[in-house]
Amino acid sequence: MRSCALWKSYRSGVMKLSDAAEYLKEYKGRELRLMEVCGTHTAGIVQNGIPSMLSERIRLISGPGCPVCVTVTEYIDRLIALSHEPGNVIVSFGDLLRVPGSAGSLNQARAQGADIRFVYSPSEMLTFAKKDRYRTFIFAAVGFETTAPVFASMLSQAEEEGIDNIRLLTSLKTMPKAIRRVSDGIDGFLAPGHVAVIAGTDAYKRLSEELGVPFVVSGFTGKELTAALYALVRLAGKEEAGFLNLYPRAVKSGGNGKARAAVRSFFEAGDAAWRGMGLIQGSGLYLREKYIKYDAGSRNLDMDRNVKGCRCSEVITGKCDPGDCPLFFTKCTPEHPVGACMVSQEGACFNCMKNRI
Amino acid sequence: MDGIIDKTHGAGGSATAELIRDIFREAFSNDYLEPLSDSAVLPPADGKKIAFTTDSYVVKPVFFPGGDIGRLAVCGTVNDLLMSGAVPAYITAGYILEEGLDIQDLKKIVCSMADTARESGVKIVTGDTKVVEPADPGEPGLMINTSGIGFVDISTDISPANIRPGDAVLVSGCLGDHHAAILGSRMSIKNNILSDAAPLVCMVSGLIGSGICIHAMRDITRGGLATILNEFSSSSGLHIRIEETAIPVSEEVRGFCGILGLDPLYMGNEGKCVFVLPEEDQDKALDIIRRSPYGEKAEVIGKVTSDPADVTMRTAIGGVKIVSPLYGEGLPRIC
């Protein structure tokens, strides 16, 4: 099918998946470096075998959208220090336990006797805290715009029930400014779908205009990713900016107003350090003064010490491929990760190794 | 017998004797157990090879949708014996009970073991009980070890080394049910997913009895189908290509996995297995499996080729991906 007719069929919503797939495989236009920002997109792309469906002229680069991967070592070090203080219990999502700090991981601290528990939902911590009022439960609150409302909801419940033995060590970040920081040499972005559900799409429209490259919000299924990549390649191939929301069933331009309001009531913006990118002004979320009693010392945790040889920082920013790192699959493996990108199921190195690409 | 387990039940005195008499002997009664001596004395093997296996079960919660730790402890060991081509015959039952465990709960679990042993055609011939302090005093539980003996015909030879190019790869039913049931239960996610814990005696004996030459088989437990296929590929030096659209996964488990970001290829079952057998036998085998208990959703999911050793999958949208073994710690312990 000719490219123009295909675009028309796409715009009118009747394009077949096989036509989009054929376009991506046969693409012969200018070489493109496209970034999927969100870690869940990275995992979905590998899961669906999408790299095998692309022309050699299309390169996908994993961006900074894996929360564990962009967490700096000083944050992990602070968690470990807190875990060794008497009366403290650290509560965390599973991935974070294996991320190396500058001297060991939370898993190692647990083996040395620290009480560190992993949960699937922060609300489980409230159950722990209610059962054991004499200990302090500290949640390792890592995440983006998507996760922040969950912590706001947990704090709201804690306020209502008067639970005062919980704390958060936050490493909450917001995405748009980090995307600007890594945009050099990127021809188009798959914008983060989950983040857009909460935060809306206005920031990505503005970024598209400012950077002059296309942004396409995508869902997470194989079909949604293929359709979004088709649109992105079509726009980027012609060097057109532009913004498309191809995840309209979940993403509205204003985002989720209720969730945003909940986040605003507990958190305020502040500077945050991102692994590999340094300090980005206003890209973090911190507890407001009114709720500071819940904070476990989250501000100014900015130091980042990469292990010698580890190129995580460059991988996150798209400056090198995981395979270019001398530690990749030699010293750094999923069983013994050296860098955070190998720890997380959403990390670029983990997924690269999983698909051996 | 009522109340809760305390240290006296493991002390070897009258409380232990009462526990054995009222709970274990009552449920498991058979000629080999009955003398209650230090070891069970079993009849000669009658010219067959002996398969011998052991496994420990520490799952929490001990009761979960579709089963309990007792059924699991019998199914796991019975299925391990079956996968070597053995006819399971005898198993042992070692219990580590935590102080505070409700004796009625123990009784339910022991009865469930007895029922599953009967269904599998095996006898529980000896056992042991110890009592320890609970890891979580709010939720005292138990751990069970079962060892099993089965008999294998001298001529039976089932091993991944026998896999040949052209062989068909079959799975006996939907992936991920047990894993999803346990996780759902732990996370209090309401759903209708039931554990698939089941002994596969009829299915495997039906296949072996029909004269089909099974090259390799394995029950799909921790590590999931992906990890087993990688072991098969690396042991045989051959390539295994599977089709995503052919892999049976129930709608509920698919939805559950979608929400939690899990992949059914890496999830454990306790009543499913994968078979590799000659292509010319695939239809006959599929028919036998589908007519066996627990096999109605069986499918042919792929084939073995002479390409370089690896496991790949054609995805639903037409891509090709490498199916790696489970890396890292994987998901929480489920058995």
Task: Give a structural overview.
The complex is a heterodimer of chains A (357) and B (335). With 357 residues, chain A is α/β, with parallel strands linked by helices. Chain A has 3 domains: 3-67 and 176-245, 3-Layer(aba) Sandwich (Rossmann fold), CATH 3.40.50.11750; 73-174 and 254-294, HypD, alpha/beta domain 2 (Rossmann fold, 3-Layer(aba) Sandwich), CATH 3.40.50; 313-355, no CATH class. Chain A contains 15 helices and 11 strands. In chain A, the strands form 2 sheets. A 6-stranded mixed β-sheet of chain A has the order 4-3-5-6-11-10, sandwiched between helices. A 5-stranded parallel β-sheet of chain A has the order 2-1-7-8-9, with helices on both faces. In chain A, α11 links the parallel β8 and β9 (243-245). The relative contact order of chain A is 0.16. With 335 residues, chain B is an alpha+beta fold. Chain B has helices at 14-28, 69-83, 103-120, 177-186, 201-209, 224-236, 251-260, 282-291, and strands at 49-57, 63-64, 67-68, 87-98, 123-132, 142-152, 168-171, 216-219, 239-243, 273-277, 299-305, 310-314, 320-322. Chains A and B meet through α2, α3, α11 and α15 of A and β13 of B.
SSE layout:
The complex is a heterodimer of chains A (357) and B (335).
Chain A: H1 3-11, H2 17-26, E1 32-38, H3 39-47, E2 58-65, H4 73-83, E3 88-92, H5 106-111, E4 116-118, H6 123-131, E5 136-143, H7 148-161, E6 166-173, H8 176-181, E7 188-191, H9 193-199, H10 202-211, E8 215-217, H11 222-237, E9 243-245, H12 257-266, E10 267-274, E11 278-287, H13 312-316, H14 340-343, H15 348-355
Parallel strand pairs in A: 1-2, 1-7, 3-4, 3-5, 5-6, 7-8, 8-9
Antiparallel strand pairs in A: 6-11, 10-11
Helix pairs in contact in A: 2-11, 3-15, 7-12
Chain B: H1 14-28, E1 49-57, E2 63-64, E3 67-68, H2 69-83, E4 87-98, H3 103-120, E5 123-132, E6 142-152, E7 168-171, H4 177-186, H5 201-209, E8 216-219, H6 224-236, E9 239-243, H7 251-260, E10 273-277, H8 282-291, E11 299-305, E12 310-314, E13 320-322
Parallel strand pairs in B: 4-5, 9-12
Antiparallel strand pairs in B: 1-6, 2-3, 4-6, 7-10, 7-11, 8-10, 9-11, 12-13
Helix pairs in contact in B: 1-3, 2-3, 5-8
